[in-house]
Structures are given as C-alpha cells and as structure tokens.
Amino acid sequence: MKFGIIGTGAVGGYYGGLLCRQGFETHFLLHSDYEHVMKNGLFIESKDGDFALGNVNAYNSPEDMPRCDIVLVALKTTANDSLASILPHVAKDDSIVVVLQNGLGVEADVRKVLPGATILGGLCFLCSNKIGPGHIRHLDFGSVRLGEFRDDGTAAGITPALDKVSRAFSQAGIPVDVTENLGLARWQKLVWNMAFNGVSVVLSATTRELMDDASSLSLVRDIMREVVEGARACGYDPGDNFIETMLDVTGKMVAYSPSMKLDFEAGRPLETDKIYRAPIMAARAAGFNMLKSEVIARQLEFLDRRNTRNAF
Amino acid sequence: MKFGIIGTGAVGGYYGGLLCRQGFETHFLLHSDYEHVMKNGLFIESKDGDFALGNVNAYNSPEDMPRCDIVLVALKTTANDSLASILPHVAKDDSIVVVLQNGLGVEADVRKVLPGATILGGLCFLCSNKIGPGHIRHLDFGSVRLGEFRDDGTAAGITPALDKVSRAFSQAGIPVDVTENLGLARWQKLVWNMAFNGVSVVLSATTRELMDDASSLSLVRDIMREVVEGARACGYDPGDNFIETMLDVTGKMVAYSPSMKLDFEAGRPLETDKIYRAPIMAARAAGFNMLKSEVIARQLEFLDRRNTRNAF
C-alpha cells in the first residue's frame, strides 16, 4: 500500500511522517524544502516524542512520483489550483484521495480533477507548525475525523474506503474517528474555524485573548450561532450544545494562534475562500444570509491583499 | 454675549478660536493644556491662514468660569460623565448649549444635567487635530450643521436659538447651515461615521485605502446601507442617493484618518458608545438589528480595551 503526501508542511509532514515511521511506503511531494529533505530527511518534534526520518522518498515534481493507493492532500487550500497538475500523476483509477484541508468545497476541487476517484474528507484537530525546512513542530492534539465525500452532500455512511484509511491511520498511531456524514462534520468544524480563525487575524489576538474579553467572546459566540444557522439552512444540524461545548474546550486550551493567524503573520495568503466564502455562498443558496461572517470575510480579503502585497 | 468652550481640543479650540478672534467674549475650559495656554495663548494653524490668540480667558476649573450665554460642548463623548460637574457652573437658565459631538444621544447627556436648557446639536464637518498644547492644526473643511434638539426626536424647525447661534458662527467666519431636523442630520452623519470610523480602526487604514480595495469598499457600502435602514426604522430618511454621494465625496478626499483612528493611535478611548452602541440600540428598539455594525462595535470594544490598557 503506497501513500502519496501532497504538501509536506505542518499537516502533511506530520501525518505523513507518522505513516512513514510506521513502515508504510510513503512518497512526499515537496516544493521549497525539497533539497533540504533530500539531504537531511524530515524531523518531527512532537509533544508525544520527537523522531527523525533520515531517508524519505522526496519529490519536487509530481511526474516523478509513483501512483499511490492513498493520496493525502495537505496543501493550503490557496494552492488548490495546482491540484490539476499534480493529482493526475499520483492517483490511479482505484486510489483513495484524503483531503486534509479546512473549509468547504475542498473535496469538490479534487472531484473536478479526478471525476471517478473515491474521495474522503479529513478534519484535522491538530496544532502543529512547520518551523523550518523539513522541520515540523507538533504542539498539541492530532486526531483526524474521516468521512467519505458524496457529490450531493448527503451522508455516505461507513464505507470500505473509510475503513481502509482509518485502519492505516490507527496503525500509525493517529487518533482517528469516522463519520457517516462528512458535510455535517465540515460544518461543525466551521463553527470553530469561522469564529476563531478570522477574528484572530482581524484583532491580532490568540484564542485566550478572545475568550477573556467580553466583547470578543460575544462576537465569537454570535458568529458561531450564525454558522450553526447556516449549517441548518444547508440541512446539517450541529446539535444543541455544540457552541457551548466548543467554547468550553477553547477556554481550557492554552493561548493558541489559529492557522489563519499563523499564515497571516508569515505573509502567506489566507484560506478565506474555503473557510468563509464557500460556506457563506452555500448558506445563501439555501436562503440564509451570514451577515456577520460576511463582515469578517471582507476584512480578511482586505488584510490579505495588503499583507501579501507587502510581502513581495 | 459670552461664549463658554467646554473642551479646548481639535474642535473646541478651533471654533472657540474663531469666535474669540472675531471679538466675542470667549471663556475656555482646559485640562492638561491649562498652564501652557495661560502663558502662551492658543495657536491655530489653518489652511485658511494661521492665527495666534495671545491672551485668552483660560480656566482649569468650571467653578471659576462665568456663566455663559452660549456654551459649546466639545469634549470627546467618552468624557461626557464629567458634564454633570461642569455644566451647572457654566450655564444659566436661558443659556443655549451647543453639542459639537459625534454620534447619537449626546444631547440627551446634556439634558440629564440641564433639564430646562435650550440644546442645539452641531455636526462638524471638520478635519483638525490638536498637535500640541494649545496648538490646533486645521487641515480641511470646517462647516457646522446646527439643529435644535427635541427630547422626542422630532423636527424642531428653525428656532430663535438656532438663528442666534448660526448668526454668531457666521460672523466668526464659520460656514454654517441649519437643519429643521437634527435627528435626521445625526443619522446622516452616522452613515459616514459608522462606516469609516470603525473600519479604519479595525483595518488600520485611511479612507483612501478603504476606497481603493474592492472588499473594504463593499464592506463600507454594506455598513452604510445598514445605517440607512437603521435610520429609516427610527423614522428618518437619509434620501435615496445619499450613500453614493457620500462615497463620491470620500473618493475625492485626500487619504484621511477619521477621528476614531487618530484617537486609537494616540491611545485615547474610542467613542464607540455614541457612534455605534447608541444607534444600534435605537434601531433595535425600532425593530431593526444592525448586525454588521454590531460586529464592528464588538471589535472596537476589544481593541479599545487592549489599546488603553497598554497605554497605562
């Protein structure tokens, strides 16, 4: 069973590293870190124990990669345009593609490129960063929720592909759970992401600061409520106590910078399209206007343009 | 005819300075600049010509001031709690109090202190800063729209008090126009202020930057539309082309930092209560929820607390 890791950063480097350590045949696509990883391998610094992978199958061109049975897509969604030039080289007819990305519409991006593929979505509850070439720092958490994608958004149930991938992840020590309803799981994750990712960028604040101030906490809770309403308009019910549970968990976390804040600080483009625009459009198509999220999205678009313009 | 100037900053120093220069008997209440102005007077640097007032009636305590016929309230609204200890010393039964402040509910703050007073609202279309002790820099514009306040928000018409104050202002060279409907005029000014003041703080951007980016321009326009809806819910109609006219004017202005942005950069508290909270509450009481403005208000409250905490 061959694994292909598309994007060897905080997410792909970490999960791919765990699979590789477990002995799975693993092929890593890299970009800027290619030379370094060819020479030095990968180093995973983890709260669960550091480990080095000295000799990894590294590629800087998808044409050179073998076709893989399971392909993990772990690019930033802002790079999804490149999937068209990558996936046809790495996937085969019976490959399973696992999309380890945030937001909505990410599996559909893969579907456009691979009309017949089996596609899973993977929601990563992971706190990790790439802190240098081939150097991943895993700070906390790490579980993955897997669900199979259906083009019409309905629940796929527990499928053979889900079984196969979740067994491999478990073997590699990745805490994994499976969901029958990927759409619901994606909206549930958006409840947190749409509240904390954008607001942490706009207000330049960690989760701790946002939880500790009455006004920002109200704002976060308001956005969460709006996302739950958006989810319901689209036919997914996150459940009654979902928001308070999320806030409870966040209140107990250490001060944390969401991925979008880290992207912003590093001058990388923001995943506003998948994390905000796609759900806002889906809800609107279902008759619900996410007005507060729209404010955050426009602020992010402005800040993103100014930030990335200044970076070059 | 005696004028009392409560707050000798960018607004009070400028308009009070023009009245004083014209020869009106003018009494200035100062705080931190008192010693300096006692010794050196006021200096008004203006695009229309600089002038110095060497010998001004300056006070650092309202108890020492004479009772005045016309009292200009030109404090930041964040200092309105102090009106209770100031106005009873400066006003008399037949005084006219002119409230030269932004936002909603500012005349009501004066009414609480002076139940029988004649109260005018004055909307300043003025770009000026206090750049040092007793030193005002007038950059652009300068007109004042005056209207008489009615406790129930209805149009007061053109009153004798309005006539009196507008004549004096005109004599002093202040471009002035009068409105029969102060409530409408305040909401019209809010269309601009609620869009540009808060967003310029949150995104740390001048009016020019906000006009030049498609996303921030959409955000500004959306908030303007929401304010117009809020005004209509409260019984005031800003008019059909009001928003596009405002945007047109703003697009032709030089890059400009709204007063709230200047306050923020100087570590001063923000006028969020009068410019956002009061209109949001008024609209809500009339059955309309200003959801987008609510997002901006909460962001401002968070930023304000962090900003002023850091300042001490």
What is the C-alpha radius of gyration of chain A, as a whole number of Å?
Answer: 19 Å
- CATH top level class name of the largest domain in chain A: Alpha Beta
Question: What assembly state would you assign to the polypeptide chains in this entry?
Answer: homodimer
Strand content of chain A: 15-25%
State the helicity of chain A in percent bands.
40-55%
Number of strands of chain A: 10
Using brief descriptors, characterize the structure shown.
homodimer; 312 residues; alpha/beta; Rossmann fold; N-(1-d-carboxylethyl)-l-norvaline Dehydrogenase, domain 2; 2 domains; ten-stranded mixed sheet; 12 helices; 10 strands
What does this protein structure show overall?
The structure is a homodimer of 312-residue chains. The first copy, chain A, is globular and about 50 Å long. Chain A has 312 residues and is of the alpha/beta class. In chain A, 46% of the residues lie in helices and 20% in strands. Chain A has two domains: 2-180, 3-Layer(aba) Sandwich (Rossmann fold); 184-310, N-(1-d-carboxylethyl)-l-norvaline Dehydrogenase, domain 2 (Orthogonal Bundle). In chain A, helix 6 runs antiparallel to helix 8 (214-233) and helix 6 (182-202) crosses helix 11 (272-285). The first copy, chain A, has twelve helices and ten strands. The A-B interface holds A 199, 202-203, 205, 209-210, 213-216, 218-219, 222, 291-292, 294-299, 301-303, 305-306 and B 199, 202-203, 205, 209-210, 213-216, 218-219, 222, 291-292, 294-299, 301-303, 305-306.
